[in-house]
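Render this sequence as a predicted structure.
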Amino acid sequence: MTMLVERPTFEPPPEPDLRFTPEDLQRLPEEQRFELVNGRLVERNMSVLSSDVASEMVSVLRPFVRQRGLGRAFAADLGYQCFPDDPLKVRKPDVSFVSASRWSDSFLSRGYCPIAPDLVVGVVSKHDLHEEVQVKVGEYLEAGVRVVWVIDPGARCAQMYGADGSSRRLTAGGTLEGGEVVPGFQCPLAALLPGVPGKAGGLDPE
């Protein structure tokens, strides 16, 4: 009589739960493409249109604050490690501004800026979801950002959020104003937007 021997089934080992640190992120060849949330790499949603608008914003904001000694304006290559809910979290806003009164040249030796910027500008791409955009806005405000501007070039509008809980929608005919955060700064929203109408992305359509 032939004895049937039951062979043990093979189960592959579980995938390792890879966790990254800010130092790991810096060592990645394509570091600029990613943020770090809960130890995991999160790819930044980008498009030609959103990158173009962000570049225009930096080109307007940077000389304005530099000439007046108001502080420093940065593009998306600067990461911020300043979030109390997750000390290892790294976010990279499309445009940011740190006032001169809060800036320290000691930050230049760090991988990521350890304090929250005063102003964050996010430019929505067609791949952004409204919920994800709102999560980022909330994180920035909780970290101490005073004002967040979210520009949706597809919808040709912007939403402005304040640390006091205020929110205001701006159409293409309106003007972005720095208020107390960037005194004297004014930029017509239309000046940042190419003439490409399209579907709204991460902003909640009216």
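Summary. The CA atoms of residues 91 and 131 lie 16 Å apart. The two ends are 77 Å apart (CA to CA).
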